[in-house]
UniProtKB/TrEMBL annotation:
Pfam families in UniProt: HTH_24, ROK
Alphabetized UniProt keyword annotations: Carbohydrate metabolism, Xylose metabolism
Recorded family membership: Belongs to the ROK (NagC/XylR) family.
Protein name in the entry: ROK family transcriptional regulator
PROSITE patterns reported in the protein's UniProt record: ROK
Native species: Paenibacillus oceani
Amino acid sequence: MQTTGDQHLVKKINKTIVLEAIKKESPLSRAQLSEMTGLNKGTVSTLVSELIEEKLVYEIGLGRSSGGRKPVMLLFNKTAGYAIGVDLGVRYLLAVLTDLDGKIVSERQVELERSEAGYVLPVLANTVRSLADAAPDSPYGVVGVGIGVAGIVDDKGTVLFAPNLEWRQVELQRLLAEELELPVTIGNEANAGALGEMQYGAGQEASDLVYLSVGTGIGAGIVVGGRILPGTGGFAGEIGHTTIEQNGRKCSCGNKGCWEQYASEKALLEAAKPLGVERLGKLVELAESGSTEAIRLFHEVGESLGLGIANIVNTLNPDLILIGNQMTRAEPWIRSSIERVVTSRSLPFHRKQAQIRFASLDTHSTVLGSAYDAISAFFSKDRISL
Ligand SMILES: [Zn+2]
């Protein structure tokens, strides 16, 4: 019956509103919840009882009274379950186990010797299993696994094309869900990074922000009005493959002159080869010890980054640009050249409104965003995501 369906939906929406309020604002009393949500006290009471029964909310001591009986306060049960977030990079795999509030409980980092799916998938599955084994006992156990991949992912969790991993048509969601027997969500790593910074990091106050994942390649998670801009197919943000040199260097995507051929970690390490340096950490060490050659390379890559960032500032008029992923480690050496180029190349009104910062979760924006994705999927199963 239509009416029943609607009532069911209204209840789901109200329950989500109550849980969200407790998650964000607790400790709260039932009366405060009623005031805050506009729901009447009876409805709040019923919904809270259900949430307590579901072990997602619990009661603590007595709050401050405004006269009369002292109210019982409600808290979100962050440890009712755990989530696993994964950042699948080109040469590494970073994975974390978090509670339902994104607090990291355990972490694994694995170097990947090769990038083909047949090699990576078993390593990924084993890493997730070892983290799941490390999860403390809880009512819901591990509620899901979120994975951020540096590539184009469709809504079924298939990696259509990941140029730097050299993957095409890898059914990552299906393969892993079967293997792990856990709910799996797959997303683009830059979108996951944006999500991580919005939920837990430097992007909590921003409504129009661009998270730039600068690693082997460059991807962007574009947030407009507080929501990730997906594009028609969900593929928006492949900003590393915008052309900045008409007849420039060849790119793994098939085009030439792509931004990431000049401004990524890979481009930086390519330029550092004559110094005998193969890793970003080593180049940072050299710069710290005063190597003018290393410092010059950082300045160059910072200038190239600044070029693309100026384009973003002019195109999207964001209030915040966050530079994330591996390149956050180079902040002291690239910040000034980025700022100089953005200042000279972006329009004055746009520039004034755009803050340029480095991701506050450092190299963990994507893992935390991916874990958040898995947590959201768990809560939206019989609730509604707001
Ligand atoms: Zn390209």
